[in-house]
Design a protein that fits this description.
Blueprint (H helix, E strand, L loop, with lengths): L10 H12 L22
Pfam families: adh_short_C2 (PF13561)
Protein name: SDR family oxidoreductase
Length: 44
């Protein structure tokens, strides 16, 4: 599968997304599906 960013995500990048959702910074977010795929789901 080709990724628009030209590479796969690192474990650090996936962890940062999870930490964001677990932090107070995302306190007002509900029911979100955060796709961390480097743009692959855009269908390019």
């Amino acid at each position: 599968m080709a990724h628009p960013l030209g590479r796969c995500a690192s474990t650090e990048e996936i962890a940062q997304a999870a930490l964001y959702l677990a932090s107070n910074s995302s306190a007002f977010i509900t029911g979100l599906a955060l796709t961390v795929d480097g743009g692959a789901s855009l269908g390019y």
